[in-house]
Design a protein that fits this description.
The complex is a heterodimer of chains A (350) and B (577). With 350 residues, chain A is α+β, with helices and mostly antiparallel strands. Chain A folds into 2 domains: 220 residues, 3-Layer(aba) Sandwich (Rossmann fold), CATH 3.40.50.300; 113 residues, Beta Barrel (OB fold (Dihydrolipoamide Acetyltransferase, E2P)). Chain A contains 8 helices and 20 strands. A 6-stranded mixed beta sheet of chain A has the order 6-7-8-3-9-10, sandwiched between helices. In chain A, strands 13-12-11-14-20 form a 5-stranded antiparallel beta sheet. In chain A, 39% of the residues are buried. By secondary structure, chain B is mainly α. Chain B has a domain of 205 residues: MetI-like fold, CATH 1.10.3720.10. Chain B has 25 helices and no strands. Classes of the chains: A alpha+beta (350), B mainly alpha (577).
């Protein structure tokens, strides 16, 4: 099966600045792929190259198996939702949605039907004659989505489409976008810097850093099996414990740091040398001193609604963070022991 | 640069080509010729003869000094008097400011001739001011207030104050109110925060306003000729005299060259001290930290002292009320002299006097039935209409090219397009006269139209450039992805969104041509008068009530042109809600 969309060594160079290193990426038909990364990581450049708004400096782009590297934006059969929505301010909602259909010279009656369907799909049927500025942010967002899918593009690009909305509305729109993705069956490529959004929405996440792909995988892959320290820290919170891998006579493997020796699971260790052990806050638990991997006094306890966040001073630069249920949270100053299941933690190179 | 990108640059430059060629032919060539004529003698040899004569000519030196002092004082007073008004405007809500701006824009666009005529009516021996004063017994046997230096300065500042305000306003509006609030929460009193935070941030706008007023007034001749005595003669008047009375083109050319060099010198000096970017409303960080620290300290103390004095004045004087009173006063002073023309236009008497005697429409009748006035009125309308279309077409093409050119090309091209704004009009006029006399274009409507288009292009370019700067290019990207071709995008997205600015540019070009006098004086050739030229001829000869009627018609036309767009906006807004 050919991929719906494929980049081969695609790159972008602005004078001496590399906006995107040569990048290979394959997106399957109907997939929801998120380009996640901090600002300047190259995710927007990659999206704009796919959209045809930025000419790549090198590499090739295939859409449905056809070379589209130099095709014009309008000929790629791609839809895009912009961060600022980019609704035409001088056109009504109806005219905005009809615009791509007019460009495709669809006949009048068909346009009326298609626009009506699109408006219903985003539950904005009552707003057809409004101007964009008379709508709220969330409503504009829906119109932008409707204008994008009304001409049934096989690939839909979304450039931080929820960035301008407040938290509550953002969560609501996430659900709607998921629903739309299922109903339309189109390939979605979604850009965001919000890792929670990426985890919630994606089939796969393409984590980007320093203008190249850092790690590509399912949300579970990225969360449970980070391959780099950057992945571990960008997605969710991680306690990173750095040290050197040591193989003992009896076959056990441990991580030897400046102030600790921790057990490692053989399945996670790929080689010798300096590594970091990634312990998620919810993987660690409090225990008595005898069983503890690490010990230290509690520095701070922060109430977080469903649970407490407990910061333990383990003698490293950063305190160790774990989550505790509401009943068994320690007090500040208590010396506590920490342990976890070594098989669940990940080891990354440093 | 690779050959490929060079060709692409040339292709991007294509829409600007007609405009650039037009300016080269009718702006660069004449201006360069004028400079050349000043330094080349009859046999074609280089000579400084004209300039030697000028330097030794004490009359010229005195005139030059007068010109600089009048321009300098005008710039100073316009900025000082305009600053509080601009500040007041900058603190208003958008819709209130729009209403106030009408009262500044109408006087701004009103013809200098009308404004001068109005001041003659106010300040002359039988004028409004002295009539009222002597009726109240304040003065007996009054000496006329014009012609005099006072008259020239009043007229000049009145004419230039709106320009100063318009140029200070954008930067003042750009000063985020949160900076002032921050200063106040950090312990600065209102007055201290104004002087130590607002003033330094607004300073580039103040400097830009001063510069533009100075350069604009350098080439003035209408006001000093009609409101001043021979002592207040300015260089531009000598240029006109040199051509119309002495028929001495090399002398006129040398005088023009002096004006041009002064304007450019002031401009370069300004660029060095303040930076040209401030003209377009951008602020530049002060590079000299040490002097910045000193001036901040000084400004803080000034704020303290003035603030202290202000508090002692008592709580009765509220700050905003003071500003409000000042604002109303300024706007009244801008408009009243123009309004004075109205009753006088309806006088039944053959003399200009105040209050007007009787009521009649006879002077409007004279205006409408006189073939001279009629012809000049129709010519003005026609030339202005063609100028509006021509300069908008040329200017829009140039601006479209600007947006696609790389930075190192667009900046010099932009500067070139604005150059007619900086070169004193009289220099362009003399140059065009010289060029047109050989092309047989003197005394033709085509010649007038070409000259006016040269003057209007910079205004069109500035208006359209501002519109394109505001244009959200993501809309263009969106249309591209939705399948629109380049031409379709311009038709369905760019033009509809910017249609208001195109109309504004066209209107502005129309107004510039409609009340243009300098080029008309030389190029109309005495036979094909425009309305302003006909007014000027009448005013130089003998002021009469017909002028009041003509002035009224001009004010009404200009006011309609200025008010219509904001009226449109209001209707559109009302419809949208």
């Amino acid at each position: 099966m050919t991929a719906r969309l494929q980049t081969v060594g695609i790159s972008k160079q602005y004078d001496s600045v590399t906006a995107l290193s040569p990048t290979d990426l394959e997106v399957q038909d109907g997939e929801f792929l998120t380009l996640l990364g901090p600002s300047g990581s190259g995710k927007t450049t990659l999206l704009q190259i796919i959209a045809g708004l930025v000419e790549p400096s090198g590499g090739r782009l295939f859409i449905s198996g056809k070379d589209a590297t130099h095709a014009s934006a309008g000929d790629r059969g791609i839809g895009m939702v912009f961060q600022s929505y980019a609704l035409f301010p001088h056109l009504s909602v109806w005219e905005n949605i009809a615009y791509p259909l007019r460009m495709r010279k669809m006949d009048k009656a068909a346009i009326v039907v298609a626009v009506k369907d699109a408006l219903e799909m985003v539950q904005m049927g009552a707003y057809a004659q409004r101007l964009p500025r008379e709508l709220s942010g969330g409503q504009q967002q829906r119109i932008a989505l409707a204008r994008c899918f009304v001409y049934k593009p096989s690939v839909i690009l979304l450039d931080e489409p929820l960035g301008a909305l407040d938290k509550k509305l953002r969560e609501h729109m996430q659900l709607e976008i998921r629903k739309l993705h299922k109903e339309l069956g189109a390939t979605f490529i979604y850009v965001t810097h919000d890792q929670e959004e990426a985890l919630n929405l994606s089939d796969r996440i393409c984590l980007m850093n320093n203008s190249k792909i850092e790690q590509l995988g399912t949300p579970e892959d990225l969360y449970d099996r980070p391959m780099t320290a950057f992945s571990a820290q960008f997605i969710g919170y991680s306690n990173l414990l750095t040290g050197r891998v040591q193989f003992a006579q009896d076959g056990t493997i441990s991580l030897v740091g400046a102030r600790f020796t921790l057990p490692l699971d053989a399945r996670n260790v790929k080689g010798a040398g300096d590594v970091a052990l990634v312990v998620r806050p919810e993987q660690a638990a409090l225990c008595n001193a005898a069983e503890a991997f690490l010990k230290g006094p509690v520095k701070e306890v922060v109430f977080a609604g469903s649970d407490y966040r407990v910061f333990v001073d383990i003698g490293e630069n950063e305190p160790f963070l774990l989550r505790c249920g509401r009943r068994d949270a320690p007090n500040v100053g208590d010396v506590v022991g920490l342990r976890w299941n070594p098989g669940h933690t990940a080891v990354v190179p440093v | 640069m690779t050959e490929h990108s060079f060709i692409r640059t040339l292709r991007h430059l294509a829409p600007a080509m007609p405009c650039l060629l037009f300016l080269v032919a009718f702006f660069c060539v004449p201006v360069v010729e004028i400079l050349q004529t000043g330094v080349v003698n009859a046999d074609g040899h280089f000579t400084g003869e004209q300039f030697h004569r000028l330097v030794k000519d004490t009359v010229f030196l005195k005139v030059l000094w007068t010109t600089f002092s009048i321009s300098g004082l005008t710039a100073l007073f316009s900025v000082v008097l305009g600053f509080p008004l601009a500040y007041y405007l900058s603190q208003m809500s958008e819709s209130t400011r729009e209403r106030w701006m009408l009262w500044i824009m109408v006087p701004f666009w009103t013809s200098y001739l009308v404004k001068t005529f109005a001041w003659i009516l106010v300040l002359s021996k039988t004028g409004v001011l002295l009539t009222v004063a002597s009726a109240l017994g304040l003065v007996s046997d009054p000496a006329p207030l014009v012609p005099s230096m006072l008259g020239v300065m009043v007229g000049m500042v009145h004419a230039m104050l709106p320009l100063a305000v318009i140029n200070m306003l954008p930067i003042m509006r750009g000063v985020n109110a949160q900076f002032l609030q921050a200063a106040e929460t950090l312990g600065a009193s209102r007055s201290v925060s104004f002087f130590s935070v607002f003033l330094p941030m607004a300073a580039p706008g103040v400097a830009a306003a001063g510069l533009l007023v100075f350069i604009t007034t350098l080439g003035f001749f209408i006001l000093p000729a009609l409101l001043g005595s021979p002592k207040e003669t300015m260089v531009a008047q000598m240029v006109i005299q040199a051509i119309n009375e002495l028929f001495n083109l090399p002398y006129a050319a040398a005088l023009s060259a002096v004006l041009l060099v002064s304007a450019v010198a002031v401009f370069l000096l300004y660029d060095k001290l303040v930076g040209l970017s401030s003209l377009s409303g951008d602020t530049r960080a002060s590079s000299n930290r040490k002097s910045a620290a000193w001036s901040t300290l000084a400004l803080i103390s000034i704020g303290r002292i003035l603030g202290g004095g202000y508090r002692m004045a008592g709580p009765m004087v509220s700050r905003l009320n003071g500003l409000k009173t000042y604002g109303f006063l300024m706007v009244a002073l801008l408009s009243l002299p123009i309004v004075i023309v109205f009753p006088i236009a309806f006088t039944d008497s053959s003399f200009l006097s105040f209050p007007p005697k009787g009521f009649s429409l006879r002077w409007f009748d004279t205006f409408i039935t006189s073939s001279v006035w009629q012809a000049s009125f129709i010519r003005s309308l026609g030339v202005a209409a063609v100028t509006a279309v021509l300069s908008t077409v040329l200017g829009v093409g140039a601006v479209l090219a600007l947006t696609r050119l790389p930075g190192r090309w667009s900046k010099p091209v932009f500067a070139f397009l604005l150059a007619p704004l900086i070169v004193p009009r009289i220099v362009v006029a003399v140059g065009l006269f010289y060029l047109f006399s050989r092309l047989g274009l003197v005394g033709t409507d085509l010649g007038l139209t070409i000259g006016h288009t040269v003057l209007a292009i910079p205004y069109v370019v500035v208006t359209m450039a501002a519109a394109l700067k505001r244009f959200d290019w993501r809309l263009d990207d969106a249309a591209k992805i939705l399948g629109a071709s380049a031409f379709t995008r311009q038709r369905t997205v760019h033009l509809p969104i910017m249609i208001g600015s195109v109309a504004a540019a066209m209107q502005m070009a129309f107004v510039i041509s409609f009340d243009e006098l300098t080029i008309a004086i030389f190029v109309s050739g005495g036979m094909k008068n425009t309305l302003p030229k006909q007014m000027w001829d009448d005013m130089v000869l003998q002021v009469n009530p017909t002028l009041a009627a003509v002035s009224l018609v001009m004010v009404v036309i200009i006011a309609l042109l200025v008010i219509t767009p904001s009226f449109y906006k209001k209707i559109r807004r009302a419809k949208a809600v």
